[in-house]
Write a sequence for this structure.
């Protein structure tokens, strides 16, 4: 059973377009992270959200944590080819001693 | 060196070979992790260590043997692997096992079993 579901699985868009990817669960998380992974490299941490309803911005990226802390979204404005990669969300439950990763959204931004 | 380093970056080994993967973190963290990433599969947690003690073994076959001599170093010893073990093996570290679980990953070792 996949605890965290990400959608869409694949997304291919043109440079300059906006997009949103989603991370959904039936479980409540104490914190949730978003990572970006480029081919042949390890995931790189982008952001952590911990409070229900929290919104964080990182340049053209906007991250939102659901009010119930069960889901999250990542919105990219005016996507660029450098945004291409695998976007992973990871949720941690209190005292679990580990976090659970979603299966990722592969984003391709064409010039 | 900064962050999390892994060696080797690429490894090709036969099914009867014995090899080891090395991970070192320069972040002063106390928890370290091994993950397996295969094509078309989510990131799979293999092992977790906290202050050198193993806290998680996610039903990993015994042909994978982890070792954590101190909080900065983590090894994965490999023997009699199968072709389906070919994957990207990622090491990560975090400050602790409590709180936000922000993990910092190394670049991975691309393993091919022939």
């Amino acid at each position: 059973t996949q605890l965290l579901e990400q959608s869409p699985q694949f997304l291919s868009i043109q440079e300059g377009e906006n997009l949103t990817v989603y991370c959904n669960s039936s479980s409540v998380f104490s914190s949730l992270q978003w990572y970006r992974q480029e081919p042949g490299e390890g995931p790189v941490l982008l952001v952590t959200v911990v409070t229900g309803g929290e919104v964080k911005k990182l340049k053209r990226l906007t991250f939102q944590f659901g009010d119930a802390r069960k889901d999250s979204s990542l919105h990219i404005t005016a996507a660029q080819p450098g945004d291409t990669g695998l976007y992973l969300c990871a949720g941690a439950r209190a005292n679990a001693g580990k976090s659970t990763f979603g299966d990722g959204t592969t984003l391709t931004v064409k010039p | 060196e900064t962050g999390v380093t892994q060696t080797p970056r690429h490894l090709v080994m036969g099914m009867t070979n014995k090899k080891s993967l090395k991970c070192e973190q320069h972040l002063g963290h106390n928890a370290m992790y091994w993950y397996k990433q295969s094509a078309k599969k989510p990131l799979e947690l293999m092992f977790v260590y906290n202050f050198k003690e193993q806290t998680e073994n996610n039903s990993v076959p015994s042909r994978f043997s982890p070792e954590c001599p101190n909080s900065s170093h983590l090894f994965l010893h490999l023997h009699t692997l199968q072709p389906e073990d070919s994957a990207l093996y990622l090491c990560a570290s975090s400050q602790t096992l409590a709180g936000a679980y922000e993990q910092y990953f190394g670049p991975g070792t691309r393993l091919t079993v022939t």
Chain B has a mean pLDDT of 93. Chain B touches chain A through 25 residues (CB under 8 Å). Residues 56 and 63 of chain B are 16 Å apart (CA to CA).
